[in-house]
Write a structure and sequence with these properties.
This protein is α+β, with helices and mostly antiparallel strands and 283 residues long. It has one domain. Helix content is 38%, strand content 21%. The chain is built from 7 helices and 13 strands. The strands form 4 sheets. A 7-stranded mixed sheet has the order 3-4-5-2-11-12-13, covered by helices on one side. A two-stranded antiparallel ribbon has the order 1-8. Strand 11 (180-188) and strand 12 form a beta hairpin. Helix 2 runs antiparallel to helix 3 (47-66) and helix 5 (205-216) packs antiparallel against helix 6. It is elongated and about 70 Å long. The relative contact order is 0.15.
């Protein structure tokens, strides 16, 4: 496997796994304990009712996460093994629930990606372009080549701004993506044309999509965590989010997102060769 890693010029360090008791549940428990202490001091008569309410809230958050956990964990492990064998690296664990998806290659043009290259099943970075869901890939590690079939699109799913949690399977709670509006994005057609596309998305969906895909490969891409988080902030502002709220979202991902990754962790560009996106036709 070391030969494969050399071919891709990528970092392949062990990655953190998603846990049953995650930050959101820990936060709920912490808030519950603080509230309980407050009631013990100021209003002891409400302690019993608060314990019942706390138990219901914790069960509501935990049970949907627990049900089917072993199956999800096995499927994620199998997927990462396939990716490891194919590319020589694997993506980071991603949490759901997956409530949004695209089934076409979405393109974000940014100077952050100038002269930088990275290729994978779900994310491509190629000289000023970040491409999410690039299509079905074919890799030849011996020849250091990769190609994508734009006529065989793949669906990429994400949850919007994280975290989001099911509550007893009847409600979805978590970080809001805010109101719907028409937004202009760029996509690649099956004919290899770079086209403008108008979508009716919630405010944060475009920014969260690109950010999620970049975070999925944050250990391997030639962009640093600081750059990825700043792009997220820029895209929120472009979508029309008030600056103060965008700063709060940026602070949250910068301080809480992928906390195991150093801020200046950018890796070297991949030396794989790809011709698929070099002759995009702008229409």
């Amino acid at each position: 496997m070391s030969d494969i890693n050399n071919v891709n010029n990528l970092n392949n360090t062990p990655q953190p796994v998603v846990k049953k008791i995650d930050m959101s549940l820990k936060l709920a428990l912490l808030v519950g304990v603080i509230l309980l202490l407050f009631l013990l001091w100021f209003s002891p008569s409400f302690v019993k009712a608060s314990l019942y309410a706390g138990a219901i809230i914790c069960l509501g958050l935990f049970l949907p996460r627990q049900a089917g956990w072993d199956i999800r964990e096995r499927r994620a492990s199998e997927s990462k093994q396939v990716e490891q064998q194919k590319w020589g690296f694997s993506s980071r664990d991603r949490e759901g629930p997956w409530i949004n998806y695209i089934d076409y290659p979405l393109v974000r043009i940014t100077p952050l990606a100038d002269n930088k290259y990275f290729y994978s099943d779900w994310l491509v970075i190629e000289d000023n372009k970040i491409i999410v869901s690039p299509g079905t890939s074919e890799v030849n590690l011996a020849n250091k080549t990769v190609s994508y079939d734009l006529t065989q699109p793949k669906a990429y799913a994400w949850d919007g701004c994280s975290p989001k949690r099911l509550f007893f399977w009847v409600a979805l709670i978590g970080t809001p993506d805010w109101w719907h509006s028409e937004q202009n994005i760029k996509a690649i057609s099956e004919q290899g044309e770079l086209v403008d596309k108008k979508v009716f998305w919630q405010l944060c969906m475009h920014a969260s999509l690109v950010h999620d895909a970049l975070y999925q490969y944050l250990d391997n891409i030639p962009l640093s965590k600081i750059e990825v988080d700043h792009l997220f902030y820029q895209m929120l502002l472009e979508a029309g989010m008030p600056r103060l709220l965008a700063k709060i979202y940026h602070f949250s991902v910068h301080k809480l997102g992928a906390s195991d990754v150093l801020c200046d962790n950018a890796q070297v560009s991949s030396d794989m060769k790809c011709e698929t996106f070099k002759q995009l036709i702008t229409v």
